[in-house]
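[step 3/7] fold_predict: job queued, chain A
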Amino acid sequence: MAWVERFMTAGAAASKDGKDTVGFNLSGATYTHVGTSITKAGAFAAYTWASGDYICISSATEGKTNSLYLIASRTSDDVIVLGTYIAGGGAFTGNQTDVTSATGPWDFAAAIAGAAAGDRVNVKAGSGGCYDNTTNTRTIVNSGSTTAPIWWRGYKTTIGDKDTAGGSRTAGTDIPLWTWTTGRFYTTATYQTFSNIDFTSAYVASARGTVSMQTGGYFKFIRCRIENTSANASSYAFYTDIGVGILVGCRLKATTTAGYVSYSSGHMLYYGCHVIGGVTGLCTSSTGHITALSCIVEGFTTNGIRINGGAYTGYVDHCSIYSSGASSVAILITLLPGTGNVFIGNSILYCVTGISNAVGTNTHNIFLFNNHFVGCTNNVLYVTELSVTTDGLWIANLLIDEDTDPFVAKAGNNFTLAPTNNVDRGGGFPGVFEGQTIMVGYPDIGAVGMEGHPHFGDMSGGKY
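[step 4/7] structure written:
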């Protein structure tokens, strides 16, 4: 599809409509300005000006200096019909130029009211102004469609310049910073995409968050940062109770007082995300489904990922989950009998307990593959490995490669790569560690090593 480019900035005037402002420096000798029309044979053939764009007329002979009009219609290459005159509309210094730029952007309210299916709203980096929403909840109500979503895309200088990971991503300087005190960002619309935007609030309300996706559906957040700074049990960073959502390379953070960093009762995919804080990091309800791929979950007090079993359950792969909490559980499963399956594989779990089935039954629906338990008092609780597989793999529970402390720095001359594999560190470590004679802690071969994400797995650029 071809996007309709719109623009939004922190300091935009409410009178703008988000389209590109065009300029035409004219003189009385070369055009005819009669009533609401400007006419010149073939003058507009090279330009894409149309209804809804702006035109800036500067003519000393008519006493007009940078007079800004909304274009009502374009009847031909010869005639443009002027619409509303924009009082104090702003300066234009070019000559016969047709540009796509942020010179006629929306403010926040106008963008919410005006964005329509197929629009790509280019949100310029900045802070304050209309980006500082204080107590005002911003609610997206206009929906996109399957073939024409609405894309809210942060940029710094040139549209699209932050569409790949890496580089400087300072909030307010390189990407837009949207802030609230007690307000939040909320949507009831469908088919929305957000990228390269920092959302920060101190909003407090049960089953809500800094960003709340409710009653709509089908959304994506790409390389966004979403944080709730309030120390409250209801101060979630992200909340959704709707259909399908995807978060890619996002940083989600809440205080350790918050019940959840991200809570969902829909179908959620987290890929390459960095989740920090909360009593629980990621949680799905019994009506939801969670897929977490190549994510880092850290800083929680109780549960890294909580999977509340229902008809749909969870898939966790190549994740790294850490906590120093006294009762921390990397992955807690509450799988009710007769419900869906849970798959957990290729992950590093560094908590008091690695994986626990809180219900203690229905363990034939839990599949564990090639996980590494580091420093865990309990690797796996209340999951029984089935010794027979006569009914097929689907009812088998396999604990493969259940290594305890595979990477632990030793005080002596040896470095333990596995419980029975000691290597003299005086000659360096083998393989990828060859030539290194000092190593602190342990190398993370989970999300970081597999995906090579910058900033410890945080594709949003980090915020430390």
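[step 5/7] annotate
Helices lie at 108-114, 447-451, 454-457.
The chain has three domains: 21-86, 108-404, 408-441.
exit 0
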